[in-house]
Amino acid sequence: MDIVILAVVIAVVVLGALGGLIVGSRRKKQLPPPPPAAPDITAPPAEPHVGDEAETPREEPRRTIEEVDLPDGSAPVVVEEPPAEAPEIEIPEPTAGRLVRLRTRLSRSQNALGKGLLTLLSREHLDEDTWEEIEDTLLTADVGVQPTQELVERLRERVKVLGTRTPEGLRTLLREELVTLVGPDMDRVVKTEPEDRKPGIVMVVGVNGTGKTTTTGKLARVLVADGQSVVLGAADTFRAAAADQLQTWGERVGAHTVRGPEGGDPASVAFDAVKEGKEMGANVVLIDTAGRLHTKTGLMDELGKVKRVVEKQAPVDEVLLVLDATTGQNGLVQARVFSEVVDITGIVLTKLDGTAKGGIVVAVQRELGVPVKLVGLGEGADDLAPFEPEAFVDALIGE
User: Which residues pair with 231 in a beta bridge?
Assistant: First the structure.
């Protein structure tokens, strides 16, 4: 019996041990993997403490003042930037005979006027229809009604009396009549050298788009080419970049430019330009005026003000009106309006090359009673020329 009890006890112990092994192995399989080891993080330096928490200062090596390298007192090295290069000053072409040199460009307008008239006059029979065609040719070239009638009447009379029918004879006849129509006796000198003082003062007026500022710059070149010193007044303060444009023109020939803030008072700029021109001993002051305004003040009122303010220092010697030759009769309307406000003393016709409107020279002179003094014959810097009636007519009718 004891043996049986002992066997049962042993069996229970063995079964218990086996059960423990089985449960242990299952637990090992179900346990999650151990977490990854935390990275070593360097602790931030401790903040300094004050008062009771302050640490005992540590001994550190220190240098005496004799051991410290001090500056020797020499001046610091300054790196100099290279000076900005001044714009190269150009030498403009001489103005004497410039219109003759530009004759080829001017002759582009001869087909509708000069050659057209010669062709009509060379017909075997000059009947009424032919004379009407001659009138139409002159009117198309913007000569104007009254000048056209005068020219046709003189041509009819001279052809009838002289009986001239050869090409050379007709050309000579037409040349004489056209020169007379243009007005060879008009004073076309730009007044820039008053006898009792200097500088001479020239105002340049006209609507935007006619080439007014460009003409002012080109006129500066004309005057410099004739040996005169020039000061430019950028009084067109209402058009963006007008002052920059004029200053660029001036720098090319060594002319000083006086300018003010954009949108500023044009009369103030003009006044300062004349003042500086006097101080510098310049020969001429050219004042570029506004062609339109962004304010409620009328353009003509502003131009009148500019002229009055300038004349507090010296009289204005020239008021040049810039007209676009391609606008024809519209240009005459502009001329009429400007002449009512400022006393126009001369006309500058731009864009006269490549146009059949050469007759505008005659029409605008008749309208205002003042001469065309300068003509623009291209986009080049030296394409502004003093007007010469004979050279102009020769270019119209050709060789």
Answer: 256, 285
The SS3 call for residue 39 is coil
Give residue 130's Cα distance to chain centre. 47
Q: In what order do the strands lie in the sheet with 256-258?
A: 256-258, 230-234, 284-288, 200-205, 318-324, 346-350, 372-376, 384-386
Give 130: exposed, middle or buried? Use CB within 10 Å, 0-12, 13-18, 19+. middle
Q: Are strands 284-288 and 256-258 parallel, antiparallel or unpaired?
A: unpaired
Report pLDDT digits (tens) over 84-135.
565 678 877 777 777 777 677 666 655 567 778 888 888 878 889 999 998 9
Which DSSP symbol is given to 61?
-
Q: What is the pairing mode between strands 384-386 and 372-376? A: antiparallel
Residues in the chain: 399
Residue 107, both tokens:
């002759």
pLDDT interval class at 327 (50, 70, 90):
confident
Is the torsion defined by CA of 119, 122, 127, 131 positive or negative? Answer: positive
Phi, psi at 222, each rounded to 5°: -60, -45
The helices-and-strands tally (H runs, E runs) of the chain is 14, 8
Closest CA to 331 of 320, 323, 342, 322: 323
Return the H-helix or E-strand segment holding 21: helix 2-30
And the tokens for 78? Answer: 């300054």
The mean of the pLDDT values for the chain is 80
Q: What three-state secondary structure class fits 286?
A: strand
Smallest CA-to-CA distance from 154 within 129, 135, 140, 133 is with 135
Chain centroid to Cα 379, Å, comes to 13
